[in-house]
Amino acid sequence: MMEPDKRRRIGILTGGGDCPGLNAVIRGSVKTAINLGYEVLGFLKGFEGLVDPVATMPLDLTNTFGILNQGGTILGSTNKGRFTAKVGLDEKREIDVDLLASVRKNVAELEIDGLICVGGDGSLSIAQAMFEAGIPVVGVPKTIDNDLRCTAFSFGFDSAVACAADALDRLHTTAASHERIMVLEVMGRHTGWIALHAGISGGGDVILIPEIDWTYENVCAKIVQRRQMGKRFTLIVVAEGAHPPGGGVVTLDGAQKDRQIRLGGIGQVVADEIQKRLNTETRCVVLGHLQRGGSPTYFDRMLATQYGVHAVRLIEERRFGEMVCYDPPEINSIPIRQAIDSISTVDPFGSAVVAARGLGVSFGDTAQFVNPFPESRVQAATHAERFNASADYWAILELD
After folding, report:
1. Which residues make Cβ contacts (< 8 Å) with residue 291, sequence separation at least 6?
2. Which of 59, 92, 95, 398 is 20 to 30 A from 8, alpha carbon to alpha carbon?
3. Strands (DSSP E) found in the chain
4. 133: closest CA among 321, 326, 335, 332?
5. DSSP assignment of 210-236, as one string?
């Protein structure tokens, strides 16, 4: 008598902060897995659902129908709890070995052939620890900040940029009508990808990001320059992690155990300082979690769906410890360890920054007053240093 075929089962969880496209990953994974003969089990509330009390829900074609364009995640998520592998840019913590042993035991008892972990650098650091503990894990990159290495884009980023650019479109008309300076604070803890892309696509005049040092003198100089050109309003985009002159970051609260500090408030700080210096009405708008909510853009739906499909492929090929990644135009994979070693930051001399400078956008540094297309990075730095020492730089701050 032939033995019945062994049950094949895939698990999936969504960890860390939510963002548009999570449900598209779930749907893509479920449809592909079922086509290959797998059952799919979803773990609730991120990694917390893996251990006592284990919390799961079966996923099938019925309960994943119609979720492609839905924001959030039907599995729930959390960036707090027992699984904390990263609480800062360079601060990593070891996950308790007994906790990992419990996860390994539960995954084995549930007969999970492979576990898909969807998350950012923090969640993928947890996934890497699980892989090293013998748990069959594959990763899917998710972060609106787009700061994961080894992938051109993480899903959620394009949706966040669309939200921020739409906000700039709306602020443009009211700023022009009342001749105001409008400051838009967007997310971006350690990197300025959202601010950069939204600032360019939304017609921002000043973009302040963590990767480029800036001063209030330079920002005010740009505003005055626009006035001299007859433009009586200015749109400023600032990433929440942009460092004020003198260093540090602006936070909403102090450090808390097992979680990163909450950034926020830099937009209002910038607005207050500009208003004080130029005696011009300045308003601040903070997008906050609006960037995380809502329906994913079509690009994010496409990207997230492909990630879900190819995550199942990694399990089918037993390529555990790897993360799917977007290497245009292909979806490939790399070791999770390689993706979490460091973050992807904006190149101050990269093509997007150069394009913005060519448009006349200021990054709050002296380079706004020199050739935006220097032959080399050394030449660019030399130009900026020379201009900073010139009388012309200070003259532009003189009001009419």
Report:
1. 144, 159, 160, 163, 164, 186, 187, 194
2. 95
3. 9-14, 39-43, 56-59, 114-119, 137-141, 181-186, 206-208, 234-239, 282-286, 322-327, 330-335
4. 321
5. TTS---HHHHHHHHHHHHHTT---EEE
The label of the residue with tokens 């013998």 reads: 134
Identity at 177, one-letter amino acid code:
S
**Which residues are identified as catalytic?**
145
Residue 107 DSSP SS3: helix
- Cβ atoms of 172 and 354 closer than 8 Å: no
3-state SS of 235-252?
EEEEECCCCCCCCCCCEC
Coil, strand, or helix at residue 98? helix
- The pair of structure tokens assigned to 176 is 């022009």
In tens digits, the chain (400 residues) has pLDDT values of: 444 567 799 999 999 888 999 999 999 999 999 999 999 999 999 999 999 899 999 999 999 999 999 999 999 988 777 787 555 555 566 788 999 999 999 999 999 999 999 999 989 999 999 999 999 999 999 999 999 999 999 999 999 999 999 999 999 999 999 989 999 999 998 899 999 999 999 999 999 999 999 999 999 999 999 999 999 999 999 999 999 998 777 777 654 555 566 677 899 999 999 999 999 899 999 998 898 999 999 999 999 999 999 999 999 999 999 999 999 999 999 999 999 988 999 999 999 999 999 999 999 998 766 677 766 666 666 555 554 544 444 454 444 4
Question: 122: Cβ–Cβ under 8 A, 6 or more apart, which residues?
Answer: 15, 16, 79, 84, 85, 86
Answer whether 26's CB lies under 8 Å from 12's CB.
yes
Sorted by where each starts, the structural domains of the chain and their CATH numbers stand as 9-156+296-328 (3.40.50.450), 161-292+346-395 (3.40.50.460)
Q: How far apart are CA 118 and CA 141, in angstroms?
A: 6
How many residues are given for the chain? 400
Chain-centroid distance of CA 112 in Å reads 30
